[in-house]
């Protein structure tokens, strides 16, 4: 199967020797060959899907052209074109997503999902032609003092493993953990506090995040191994309130499979478990990778206590296979107005820790929101020593026009880059032709700015629905000191 993946990827990528030659005709023929291969693949895809009977074909074409100043077209992340074709039948859905950038064909993805009896299937083929036939390494770093260092790979990749090569925290010995995400919203735990071991991921992700568990992160660096081709297949069975699933992965870097269960029992008490295996490894053809299981139960006056067990291949971490077992409870009300506590008891191989965190519940207001933390002295137990107000948000809306002001008062939170404050005015409505209209202007402020009122950047964006199927987008960014910074022209066509 790996040979088949290599062969398809070579057809999508073209000959690597051509890309290094200066002959424009050869490059033009290579581009034409890649385009022809893509068209044939899409036509074959649609023809095969037609064998399933009555069906429908729809899709979207989304793109953008970004210009920087001095005048130049921006990178793959800013200038792109994505064509998505979706073919649906009564029980199955097939789709193809083709992504282009300035570098050429960034990725080609094929998906199929459906059901056979009680079993639900989902399968995904992903090709990243620019990587070639071997796994590639991406190195990223961040030197801004934050609670979280989030790294964007620019486009989704199949990630074989991730390694934190260096990290500096305050205080010394503070704890951290790693997570991965495809959309930046839903995150999967990887591991933490081991340096500089390689932790397997085995999934298609775009974002890598290092989150501080205690203290603050001053600087960090990561190295990410990504595969050029991957094939992921998931099978699920739902029975008795539980979902049983199995996932197999075949990639040019690291392959493997996992088995898991997720659901709830009794009075909505959660229970999950997942065990993963990877191959090939230097010491075995199929190795245990990691296990994580959670089990919820009630204890006395506590409605929910969650027990979690984490294990990891000791050859990966250079430690014991046992990583930790923990007991946690959240939202404990001890009778203090507006204050609850989160408790976590963690057993590791060489130590046991008890963390009791005070949580301030200020409530929500439609107009004013305050962001604050309780200050505590952990050296003498859990003494609440003060209140730290670090953010203020003010918002209001009338007749389709809204205003929002967001200000962070410390050096740990930012609205964007190193900007501590943002003012935004937005207007939303309907166009004359059935589409939607949205216009917004945001002003960003930075403490080191030399302009009036510390204004650092102004961003204006417009989204105009020409019809219900075509939306045109425009974004302009202006630096208060350097002048024009970015201009983006975009579109979204659906049918």
Question: What's a concise summary of this model?
Answer:
The protein has helices at residues 2-13, 16-19, 24-49, 314-317, and strands at residues 56-68, 72-73, 80-88, 92-101, 104-116, 119-127, 136-142, 148-170, 176-181, 188-191, 198-212, 216-227, 229-239, 242-251, 255-265, 269-279, 287-299, 302-312, 322-332, 339-347, 352-360, 368-377, 383-398, 401-408, 421-430, 436-445, 455-465, 470-479, 483-494.
Question: Could you characterize the architecture of this molecule?
Answer:
With 495 residues, the chain is mainly β. Among the domains are: 136-227, Galactose-binding domain-like (Jelly Rolls, Sandwich); 388-494. It has four helices and 29 strands. The strands form two sheets. The chain has a 23-stranded antiparallel beta sheet that branches. A six-stranded antiparallel beta sheet has the order 7-12-8-11-9-10, with no helix packed on it.
* Rg of Cα set: 26 Å
Low-confidence stretches: 8-47, 49-53
Q: Which outline best applies?
A: globular
Q: Give the beta-strand count.
A: 29
> Mean pLDDT across all residues, rounded?
81
Q: Biggest sheet: strands, sense, closure?
A: 23 strands, antiparallel
* Total number of helices: 4
- Beta-strand content estimate: over 45%
In whole angstroms, the N-to-C terminal distance is 35 Å
